[in-house]
Amino acid sequence: MNNENFYNILGVTETATQDEIKKAYRKLAKENHPDAGGNEDTFKKISVAYDTIGDEQKRKQYDMQRNNPFGGFGDMDDVFSQMFGGRRPNNQQRPVHTSNITVSIGVLDSYRANKHSLSYRRQAMCEPCNGSGGDKTTCHGCGGSGVIVRQVGTGGFVQLMQMACDVCGGTGSKIINPCFLCSGTGSKPEMKSLDISLPHGIDNGQFLRLQGMGDFRNGTYGDLVVRIDLRPQDGFDKIGNHLVYNSFLTLDELNSGNMTVPHPDGELNIKMPKKVDTSIPLRVKSKGFRTDTVGDLMINQYVKFERD
Fold this sequence. Notes:
CATH topology of the largest domain: Helix Hairpins
Oligomer: single chain
Helix content: 10-25%
Largest sheet: 4 strands, mixed
Strand content: 25-35%
Order of helices and strands: HHHHHEHEEEEEEEEEEEEHEEEE
């Protein structure tokens, strides 16, 4: 069918009325619909042809371009190339939808790679209708494909674009008897709880993607995207790969020359330099986060005491 024009595809003459074109399309669409055992590619060609010559304005442009020696629609392979980026959409899958939440964790949780329990609200599959929303019928706007083809541009610059059917919203069907529980949405709200394993060194603003833990939509569960809000914890903070500890010292501790740091790998006894300068943090090599590089432990010194 590569060399056939849109009239030939629908089996009508070039002088056919719009009603004749519509009747021919309905007959062919019913016979060639994939749900009825028809060929998917043939059905899409029929849809493309009808979307163009089934509209009076588009039909006029199509007829003009067929007689234009400098351009035109070309054969069906060219049409599919424009519509689907150079390839036929055999068994195309829709991109997975996502749901997003933000979770606050502590710096030590990031260092220890702890498990974190979270609870969130999501849309789950409605059980009475098994996520279908109720009894359905094939959409008359797209013939069940969920997509229609629109012609964009005028004159010699025309492109066919595939887009979701505006009648059914891209689902290919319409609900005629909605489910009593979900009112046709196919989903219901629920509180979901789960434990996630934090990778060592996860930082503020980074994301974790949990497959199949998002909202139920269009018959599938999407992914849950967790944004990390990293916060100081028990006096510790994180700067790059460095673990930062804020130490509040008394005069007695300062004079003793020793400091104890409750490092997450185990308590550290730090011998302080003789010259005290609290404006410069102390550094303990290789006691920070271990990701791409090994960071250090940085100790900020704050003196805290009461005068007599």
